[in-house]
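INTERNAL AUDIT FORM
Audit reference: QA-55
Scope: verify that the stored structure record matches its stored sequence.
Auditor: D.O.
Record contents follow.
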Amino acid sequence: MILFKEAATLKTHIRQIKQSGKTIGFVPTMGALHKGHLSLIETSKIKSDITVCSIFVNPTQFNDPKDFEKYPVTIANDILLLENSGCDILFLPPVQEIYPSGTSSPVQYDLGDIETLLEGKYRPGHFQGVCQVVHKLLDIVTPHILLMGQKDYQQVIVVKKLVQLINQPVKVITGSTFREPTGLAMSSRNLRLSEEQKQAASGIFEMLQYIKNNYTASSVAEVEKFVINFLLNNGFEKVDYVAVANADTLQPVHNIKIGEKAVALIAAFLGEIRLIDNMLLAD
């Protein structure tokens, strides 16, 4: 595996790879890698000739500065995992390499309603920050395919919208959510959970399964209310949202129509740690 820290050097190397007719797969991450990330690397290796992974904790997508400061950093272990997985290139830039002129952006991405729903409502500016960094990374890596995990469901939709806005010829591929034996979705933030909190956190997966089993048997509003009460009575301090939404637009769904693709989404706090998860309800 070759490690690059400078964008210009990586771009030159990518250009040479493309001139030889090879395809590029790209897995952008913020580090603290787990099996979910490694599965994306594996998929990239199958679907492309050269796999690039980036590790960059992007400051512009954190609406809470304390969350940014406490984000887990495990670079040495991440590098070992990537080497063992057969990743070809790691891009590990410092902040000034991605934002040489500072982190304020003159560009506002027109994301439409998706920016004000769910995560967008509770994390203002978050998706502008996501678009800002993904746009920069795509310009550097210029991949043929971009691989992301389903756990960040709304982020995947946002990035697909971004790709259309910037007219980037890249295919976005979504990988399945990997889970702990308890059902807890694997996430970098799990490193900040105590063992007791991890057990409580499995309640999110339990409730997603409850929604999937009950959303057609009673009203969506009743199901959502039950889930919120369950979480608040089982270790969670705060619930930002429990929602059943259209799987493509994330507009709220009140009555599921036959054949309609829907997704259940939850965001809730254990202590100061905010966890999100989702589950497709109808394919």
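Auditor finding: record pair retrieved intact. Residues 195-214 form the longest helix (20 residues).
Action required: none
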